[in-house]
Amino acid sequence: AELALAAIGFLYHVEAHCRKRGRSAAERLALRRRVSRPVYEALLDWAEYEQKNNLSSGAIGKALKYAKDQLPRLRPCFEDGRLEVDNNLIENSIRPLALGRKNYLFAGSHEGARRAAMLYSFFASCQRLEVNPRAWLREILDRIADHPINRLDELLPHHWVEAPATASTEEE
């Protein structure tokens, strides 16, 4: 197991190196193919060998089966440098939703829950786009009543550009 943990740690180290140095997708792909893929292939071989030779049906056997089943899903990362090696970005973005799950039971109605989900989506978009959500919402609420209904998409966070005066006076 120490070998597998070291290999996985190495793969993450390469990814951290790419992020820290601001590598492009093409550069990250080249580094993955040159440095990470041999470690990944060795990890695949190790998982297959260990599963065949481990007769345990307990926790170790289950972990080996899981590793052998899941590791092939990493293969697309060695074909496209834009892909991440894990789903941490998604997991971190849905964590607040999972933590507040019981609170959402009390949205009042199905329509209330739908509206809350829309707001969460808007705020997640703001966060991802580095848009101040409070400033965005304040401006959108001021503009929406007079905005043409067939052009509401113009008010979405990815179309909104924060005015410099608003940006300097707003606190998140």
Automatic annotation (TrEMBL):
Domain Transposase IS66 central, residue spans: 3-114
Record-annotated Transposase IS66 C-terminal domain positions: 121-158
Pfam families: DDE_Tnp_IS66, DDE_Tnp_IS66_C
InterPro entries reported for this sequence: IS66_C (IPR039552), Transposase-related (IPR052344), Transposase_IS66_central (IPR004291)
Residue ranges the record marks as coiled coil: none
Database matches in PANTHER family: BLL1576 PROTEIN
UniProt name for this protein: Transposase
